[in-house]
């Protein structure tokens, strides 16, 4: 299991949230892309299913987006996180709002990391229990566009459906890289 340590390298503080910078930002991107690479190659364990997720034919390499980080920071600052729980793993490869483990207006958020068309991420954090050192990290993703009862990503041979006009395949990572 990867742990993210965030005790240094912050870019900006805005009211009660912090946007990551430097080394931590690079770690966030690396962790996201490592997860997505494992997913694309069918090596990512499907928690609760005793098997791996199937290969993805089109899964994009994520890049950092400052606007998404600001949006994530505003979201982190707008919610009472003290009673919020996150469940990892998808109930199915078909996006169905009622099966999303996050039961509030962020319905799509738990699926965005898995979504093949997602190509950008921005994250921020907020301290939720100052005396205990507790914090919450919120990440926002682009391209959204999940539709109910549709696949989260297309299953198939890794990198076989990278759009030739706008991306190339990084064969080592198994991810489509936007031009």
Automatic annotation (TrEMBL):
SUPFAM superfamilies listed in its UniProt record: PR-1-like
Domain of life: Eukaryota
Keywords: Signal
Signal peptide positions on this chain: 1-16
Span of domain SCP: 23-149
Listed InterPro entries: CAP_dom, CAP_sf
Listed name of the protein: SCP domain-containing protein
């Amino acid at each position: 299991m990867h742990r993210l340590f965030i005790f240094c390298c912050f870019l900006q503080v805005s009211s009660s949230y912090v946007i990551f910078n430097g080394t931590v930002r690079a770690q966030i991107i690396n962790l996201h892309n490592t997860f997505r690479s494992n997913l694309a190659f069918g090596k990512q364990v499907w928690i609760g299913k005793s098997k791996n997720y199937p290969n993805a034919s089109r899964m994009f390499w994520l890049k950092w987006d400052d606007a998404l980080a600001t949006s994530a920071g505003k979201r982190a600052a707008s919610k009472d996180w003290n009673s919020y729980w996150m469940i990892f793993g998808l109930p199915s490869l078909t996006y169905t709002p009622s099966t999303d483990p996050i039961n509030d207006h962020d319905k799509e958020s738990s699926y965005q990391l898995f979504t093949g068309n997602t190509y950008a991420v921005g994250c921020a954090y907020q301290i939720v229990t100052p005396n205990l050192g507790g914090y919450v990290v919120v990440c926002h993703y682009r391209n959204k566009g999940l539709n109910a009862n549709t696949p989260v990503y297309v299953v198939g041979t890794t990198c076989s459906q990278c759009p030739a006009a706008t991306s190339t395949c990084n064969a080592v990572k198994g991810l489509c890289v936007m031009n």
